[in-house]
């Protein structure tokens, strides 16, 4: 670990959503392009980028403890950059509170990291939280990623302003990347070995081709175009918003074979009063009807969602409506959170903030219901034959791990290699994974 001079090794630590993971990969590629090398696992790096998440209080506080941990007893420390959504939301505060931090860079400005590093070497601390529209992607180097599963951010930002959420403030307004750029990036990912691409966006299905004339070119058309790439085997997308679901997207699930039967469609609550106070655009009923349409198009589709318990004013009866919605859907998998008041959001100032013990108890009950459904979904898969994209080696010798079409983790033993598409029979189910029996290799 060096204290002065240009950094030669780096580490990027990403927290939060998959879009942050994607940004973390692009920052790593950018730094590698500048001649820095990734610090080997377990070794200290000259430059550490903390790519942070601001979504809940605990996630945001983490950055300060991480900064503290990077400083050694002898006073030495790496060059520290704080990136991501905490950087965007609290840049000035970080600079004031953490003198060890050399630079603060927002999610739309990280293409400027090399210049900021150069300034830091000269002893200057810098903050860049500008949000220039689409400048970042044009300034980044080509993709280097070679794993079988790759992320591709197609859309960023959010205009929905749910009353609890910081994303519209940390990520800015909704903006879509141009179609041609996305096809180019997808082609380069596939050339480098990607077999599955997950399209990412804070509201991924709000994507529409920006620019002259073809604004009506919507998300379903992008999926259909990507499906034409011969060596791409699977397409996924996340996170989608109920408001931006189109008939065209639902039809893709019936017609595009490469589009995996999986849908992450956050609902947040089963109570219409709470949904309204959250400024969600749907009711419990309109959400369920939307899911029915997906199921009609693709009967085996696995459903996932996000939930918040303890939103201000949520009564026991309203919470029970969430449990009823969960029962009605039968999720394959879902995420659930305790409401966390975020500075500057309307909900943080609402009356009726819920005590922590009530939130804990509700979260436990909700998670029990979601876990029950997840296990039931996995158990119902036993006996099915499906394709698995091999992502990595398992813990035991000769064991491999990959994903089923329904995004379940499947492990199996036998002859395989990372990136293979194999056919397995699902043999035994646990809550978080499934044991498969290898039948044949479909594509090596
Ligand atoms: N754009 C996506 C979600 C992005 S944030 C959507 O609208 O569906 C991911 C999840 O974090 C949200 O779906 C929500 O469940 C949760 N979340 C956001 N703000 C939160 C807060 N203040 N407290 C608790 N959970 C929150
Ligand atoms: Fe946040 Fe709502 Fe936007 Fe999702 S849609 S990112 S929850 S404001
Ligand atoms: Fe977190 Fe920012 Fe993603 S707040 S969830 S890293 S958009």
Features:
single chain; 444 residues; alpha/beta; Rossmann fold; pyruvate-formate lyase- activating enzyme; OB fold (Dihydrolipoamide Acetyltransferase, E2P); 3 domains; six-stranded parallel β-sheet; five-stranded mixed beta barrel; 19 strands; 34% helix; 23% strand; globular; binds S-adenosyl-L-homocysteine; binds iron/sulfur cluster; binds FE3-S4 cluster
What's the structural blueprint in terms of helices and strands?
Layout: E1 9-14, H1 18-33, E2 37-38, E3 47-52, H2 57-70, E4 79-83, H3 84-97, E5 101-105, H4 113-121, E6 126-128, H5 135-139, E7 149-153, E8 155-156, H6 167-170, E9 175-176, H7 179-191, E10 196-200, H8 219-226, E11 234-238, H9 247-255, E12 262-264, H10 272-277, H11 284-297, E13 302-309, H12 316-329, E14 333-338, H13 356-381, E15 385-393, E16 399-403, E17 409-413, E18 421-429, E19 434-443
Parallel strand pairs: 1-2, 1-3, 3-4, 4-5, 5-6, 7-10, 10-11, 12-13, 13-14, 17-19
Antiparallel strand pairs: 8-9, 15-16, 15-18, 16-17, 18-19
Bound molecules: S-adenosyl-L-homocysteine, iron/sulfur cluster and FE3-S4 cluster.
Give an account of the 3D structure.
There is one protein chain. By secondary structure, the chain is α/β, with parallel strands linked by helices. The chain folds into three domains: 9-131, Rossmann fold, CATH 3.40.50.12160; 135-381, tm_1862 like domain (pyruvate-formate lyase- activating enzyme, Alpha-Beta Horseshoe), CATH 3.80.30.20; 385-443, Nucleic acid-binding proteins (OB fold (Dihydrolipoamide Acetyltransferase, E2P), Beta Barrel). The protein has helices at residues 18-33, 57-70, 84-97, 113-121, 135-139, 167-170, 179-191, 219-226, 247-255, 272-277, 284-297, 316-329, 356-381, and strands at residues 9-14, 37-38, 47-52, 79-83, 101-105, 126-128, 149-153, 155-156, 175-176, 196-200, 234-238, 262-264, 302-309, 333-338, 385-393, 399-403, 409-413, 421-429, 434-443. The strands form five sheets. It has a six-stranded parallel beta sheet, with helices on both faces. Strands 15-16-17-19-18 form a five-stranded mixed beta barrel. It has a three-stranded parallel beta sheet with strand order 7-10-11, sandwiched between helices. Helix 8 (219-226) links the parallel strand 10 and strand 11. The protein is globular and about 60 Å long. Bound molecules: S-adenosyl-L-homocysteine, iron/sulfur cluster and FE3-S4 cluster.
């Amino acid at each position: 670990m060096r204290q002065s001079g240009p950094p030669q090794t780096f580490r990027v630590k990403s927290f939060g959503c998959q879009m942050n993971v994607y940004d973390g990969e692009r920052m790593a590629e950018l730094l590698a392009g500048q001649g820095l090398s990734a610090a080997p696992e377990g070794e200290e790096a000259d430059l550490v980028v903390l790519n942070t998440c601001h979504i809940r209080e605990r996630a945001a506080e983490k950055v300060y403890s991480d900064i503290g941990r990077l400083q050694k007893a002898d006073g030495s420390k790496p060059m520290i950059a704080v990136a991501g959504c905490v950087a965007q939301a609290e840049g000035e505060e970080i600079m004031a509170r953490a003198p060890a931090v050399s630079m603060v860079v927002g999610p739309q400005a990280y293409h400027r990291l090399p210049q900021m590093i150069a300034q830091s070497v000269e002893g200057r601390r810098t903050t860049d939280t500008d949000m220039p529209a689409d400048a970042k992607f044009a300034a980044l180097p080509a993709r280097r990623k070679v794993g079988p599963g790759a992320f591709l951010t197609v859309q960023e930002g959010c205009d929905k302003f749910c009353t609890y959420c910081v994303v519209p403030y940390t990520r800015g307004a909704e903006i879509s990347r141009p179609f041609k750029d996305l096809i180019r990036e997808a082609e380069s990912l596939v050339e480098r070995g990607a077999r599955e691409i997950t399209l990412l966006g804070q509201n991924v299905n709000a994507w529409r081709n920006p620019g002259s004339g073809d604004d009506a070119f919507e998300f379903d058309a992008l999926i259909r175009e990507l499906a034409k790439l011969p060596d791409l085997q699977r397409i996924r997308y996340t996170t989608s918003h109920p408001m931006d679901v189109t008939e065209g997207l639902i039809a893709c699930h019936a017609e595009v074979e490469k589009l995996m039967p999986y849908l992450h469609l956050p609902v947040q609550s089963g109570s219409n009063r709470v949904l309204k106070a959250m400024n969600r655009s749907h009711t419990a009923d309109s959400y369920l009807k939307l899911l029915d349409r997906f199921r009609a198009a693709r009967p085996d589709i696995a459903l996932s969602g996000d939930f918040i318990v303890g939103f201000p004013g949520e009564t026991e009866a309203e919470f029970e409506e969430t449990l009823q919605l969960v029962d009605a859907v039968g999720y394959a998998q879902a995420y659930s959170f305790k409401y966390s008041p975020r500075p500057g959001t309307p909900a943080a100032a609402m009356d009726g903030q819920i005590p922590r013990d009530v939130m804990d108890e509700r979260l436990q009950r909700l998670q029990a219901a979601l876990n029950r459904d997840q296990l039931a979904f996995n158990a119902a898969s036993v006996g099915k034959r499906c394709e698995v994209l091999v992502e990595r080696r398992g813990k035991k010798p000769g064991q491999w791990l990959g994903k089923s079409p329904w995004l379940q983790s499947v492990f199996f033993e036998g002859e395989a290699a990372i990136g293979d598409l194999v056919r397995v029979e699902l043999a035994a189910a646990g809550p978080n994974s499934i044991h498969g029996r290898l039948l044949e290799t479909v594509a090596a």
